[in-house]
């Protein structure tokens, strides 16, 4: 009696994706996102996730089964009962763009593909002419004024944080003379920081931030003499 063809048997009775191919997905940088891979009749087969970065040809192995093989701890398998081998990506960044494949170890492998695009907000601290700043020089006893613009992201339910070093200034009541004015919009935000009566201790790095990977920093120099 002729043995049944293994490949034909697997095609008919083996693992099947319940999740259809999704060609394009756009996510917001800084968010946590899940790529779903629902598989019925997995039996003794193994599920793997691989990633090919935008503009590259090499595939990077992310997970096999419930084990993570990526050196980037933001990638993990977050299995959802009963059959969703979903890939979790935390704090999404621009480099996460590219092709993601959920593969089942049949012969040949069965694959569903995602094309991930990351919407990366633009954050800048600018001068009065709208030119990005790297350094700002002010005199002792004057007022620091820093203007931050955020674009390409809805900010209607978000917060723009200002920091001096590691200190959040939005809620700082110890120093006094600090105020923040922020206008939140569908397409971004405009936020201005004021620090009055500055002294040498107010020198340092000032950051406008909307998330751990989404910020812009300038260095403020407080001078004793007059500005030239």
Automatic annotation (TrEMBL):
InterPro entries (UniProt xref): Ig-like_dom, Ig-like_dom_sf, Ig-like_fold, Ig_sub, Ig_sub2, Ig_V-set, Immunoglobulin_dom, Zig-8
Domain of life (superkingdom): Eukaryota
Residues forming coiled coils: none
GO BP annotations listed: synapse organization
Transmembrane residue ranges: none
PROSITE patterns: IG_LIKE
Residue intervals of the Ig-like domain: 15-113, 121-210
GO terms under cellular component: neuron projection membrane
Protein's name according to its UniProt entry: CSON007155 protein
Taxonomic placement: Eukaryota, Metazoa, Ecdysozoa, Arthropoda, Hexapoda
